[in-house]
Amino acid sequence: MPAPDPDSVSDRYAKLSDVVELAPGKRALTKAANRSAILDAAREVFSEMGFEAATVRDIIRRTGLSVGAFYNYYRSKEEVFDALADDGARRFRPILQAQSAQATDFPSYLRAAVGAYFNFLATEHELWTRGLEAETSPIHVRNTPELAAVFEEVRRAFAATLDRTMAAEVDLDFLAASAIAVAREVGDLMLRRRPMDVTAATEFVVSLISGGVTALPGPEH
Amino acid sequence: MPAPDPDSVSDRYAKLSDVVELAPGKRALTKAANRSAILDAAREVFSEMGFEAATVRDIIRRTGLSVGAFYNYYRSKEEVFDALADDGARRFRPILQAQSAQATDFPSYLRAAVGAYFNFLATEHELWTRGLEAETSPIHVRNTPELAAVFEEVRRAFAATLDRTMAAEVDLDFLAASAIAVAREVGDLMLRRRPMDVTAATEFVVSLISGGVTALPGPEH
Amino acid sequence: MPAPDPDSVSDRYAKLSDVVELAPGKRALTKAANRSAILDAAREVFSEMGFEAATVRDIIRRTGLSVGAFYNYYRSKEEVFDALADDGARRFRPILQAQSAQATDFPSYLRAAVGAYFNFLATEHELWTRGLEAETSPIHVRNTPELAAVFEEVRRAFAATLDRTMAAEVDLDFLAASAIAVAREVGDLMLRRRPMDVTAATEFVVSLISGGVTALPGPEH
Amino acid sequence: MPAPDPDSVSDRYAKLSDVVELAPGKRALTKAANRSAILDAAREVFSEMGFEAATVRDIIRRTGLSVGAFYNYYRSKEEVFDALADDGARRFRPILQAQSAQATDFPSYLRAAVGAYFNFLATEHELWTRGLEAETSPIHVRNTPELAAVFEEVRRAFAATLDRTMAAEVDLDFLAASAIAVAREVGDLMLRRRPMDVTAATEFVVSLISGGVTALPGPEH
DNA sequence: AATGAATGAGTGTTCATTCAT
DNA sequence: CATGAATGAACACTCATTCAT
């Protein structure tokens, strides 16, 4: 931690050594590619076996790089984990903002946020489970670092909207936590259904949170 | 060595010496105490660092016993984990059944189940965080074995009730998962509030699931 | 090792405490029985799994005694091993002496010694393999302590006879070692044949050592 | 992890870097040296204390390497053992074949095989007892993996020859076992004599097996 | 930078032995 | 003496991390 930290995922593509050549040279490309390859591999591995069980060798094995190279890009196993979280949050933020831009009241924000999340989920899903899909049946999508980050993102924005639009008499903490939890759980289920129906899932969550059981739409409908 | 193994400390509770004296002898007392001490320590350790990260040595360190003693009582790290799950389920089941006995429709069952769960949670909480309470801030109560078992219990009963009382047009999987998730999350929050208000938390969950945001009671009210 | 060593197998049946009662009391009987039970169990266990793999618990499990009792009778796992050797030697010595008493020249002594050994082997065999016989197929009778002791016994007597009756020009060390080795190996084989033919085996060894291949009798003949 | 495992140090002997330079690079040299150092150390350790009693740490202690390094080269304690056996057999086979090529009848084959074995023994001896020679007095060369393999080799060839050249009336099993045992024992003794006389030892065994005691040559003669 | 062998603390587990009861 | 729970040093093996090449 005394060192300059070359690793916040915001890749500093142009480093002194690379600048010698006019365009980002092969070196720089390789560097970015390696960094990203490690990240991808780590995503898969963490999602397949969880952080604890995953070994650094599991990760680099999928990249074709060497153990040593891993430590050139990330200082520790934990750092990749964090990088993954950053990465997820960075990818999710624009989606969230795009969808929730014109939402003003709680229901519209809720729909925007949940929709954004489910879309993100559907898009990313294959990144996390590239290939082996049905081989092992991971009853739950593991608590990947990116998911954690995304939740945090939503939780914040969500709470803010709630704050602005709801009367003070509801327990905002409880409500935010509940909504997030429902979204997480339903999102999880959604990922495992075929066909994967993002709209239906969104509708379910919005209805449940807004009007409770009685407001619920039917399934497959 | 897969055989019953008469050598382990475990459970030949009824021996001559025990029968002769009315109360369990000092030996038996110590045995029970140790077994329970290990269980308690394991509960704490698992809840603080999760099963993978927890080491057998972490567990026994808190008991003052030796590594060897651990293996006198449990055959493996996994066995304590399972014992914990059994234990939780065994303690929870009667509570759940007592509360949900006369519930016939979905709302009353929901209230019964959530109430049972929150009561169980409040009661058990100190078992899981004995002492160190605020020392580390475990953002989430970890997925302890007992919690897992309890969830399973509720999920089953819950789904059954749902099945009987709701029209076919709601997505039961989504609903059950959502209700459980909300209960889990709100329960978690409840545990960290002072004063700990079981009734309010129960009321919140029941209201949200039944009638959505608009049906929600105010906080601290 | 500073202690008086209560354990050389030559059982000191009468100990101070036992002498209080006139005849060897129940205590003494039990003591002798326990000591012998441990020895028997150890014999089996060592012969089944070898010294290293055998555990003290394996041994006492077969006696119904407690671990503690084991250490009342023998100071260590190694000590039982040694006791077993002593025991075997002590049982074998009279047999050997009886058979070789009137032997004067080398051939007659050879026959006597080999015969004694094979008889001993046949007799003891069931002690070592009580029950499970064919269950596992121990390609070789394990180098039990008693066997080692018996060999030593024969080797000595053998060398002595050799010394007296053979011209100085044969290599006595080589010869003794060879004869012993042959006896050991053939004895081993003999134990696994059905019917077990002690005479044939003896004849084979005596013939081979005396006259070489050309002097050999046919098998099953 | 049962898969070929590209991560272990082992044997991707032909790599670009190795092919470019004529001689193996320093890296490769070190690797080969370490692998061989471990093998040598294991040979010693197994021969001194036997497989069961030997610990991986005993082995690596003699190499100056770390525990981890051991597992870079061999996947388990058992694997070194097997490697040792393979190694011994591989070294012995050509010697045996060279010597027994033109042997047709039993006596000539016997002399060839025994001679081959004793020569092998004499050559290998220093490998097994490097240094400590007289320090501990290993009454018997332990049943090292290589010895076991070599025996098997001889036993097979031996039995084959026997089969072809001897009348059916001798007990081939007894005879093969006996000859092997004698060779083993005499070889053992030979190793401990100074000067070490391979020819005399061979002569002794051949004479004894062929013609028995009366055919024996004198010692040191 | 890349490589991959080396490192050694740490893991779950076993077992000879001790000792309070 | 008998008992069996407690002890802790070992054991085989793993893995994050370092570092010479």
What can you see in these coordinates?
- Four copies of one chain form a homotetramer.
- With 221 residues, chain A is an all-alpha fold.
- Chain A folds into two domains: 70 residues, Homeodomain-like (Arc Repressor Mutant, subunit A, Orthogonal Bundle), CATH 1.10.10.60; 134 residues, Tetracycline Repressor, domain 2 (Orthogonal Bundle).
- In chain A, 67% of the residues lie in helices and 0% in strands.
- Chain A has nine helices and no strands.
- Chain A is elongated and about 55 Å long.
- The interface between A and B is large, with 41 and 41 residues.
- Chain B binds a DNA duplex (21 and 21 nucleotides) through helix 2 and helix 4.
> Strand pairing plus helix content of chain A: what structural class?
mainly alpha
Number of domains of chain A: 2
Q: Which pair of chains has the greatest number of interface residues, and how are they split between the two chains?
A: C-D, 41 and 43 residues
- The number of E-state strands of chain A comes to 0
Largest sheet of chain A: none
Report the CATH C-level class of the largest domain in chain A: Mainly Alpha
Give the CATH H-level superfamily of the largest domain in chain A.
Answer: Tetracycline Repressor, domain 2
Into which percentage range does the β-strand content of chain A fall? under 5%
Instruction: Name the CATH architecture of the largest domain in chain A.
Output: Orthogonal Bundle
Order of helices and strands of chain A: HHHHHHHHH
Terminus-to-terminus distance of chain A: 54 Å
Number of helices of chain A: 9
What do the pLDDT scores of chain A average to?
78
Helix content of chain A: 55-70%
- From the 3D structure, determine the CATH topology of the largest domain in chain A: Tetracycline Repressor, domain 2
What general outline of chain A do the C-alpha atoms trace? elongated
Unreliable sequence segments of chain A: 1-22, 131-141
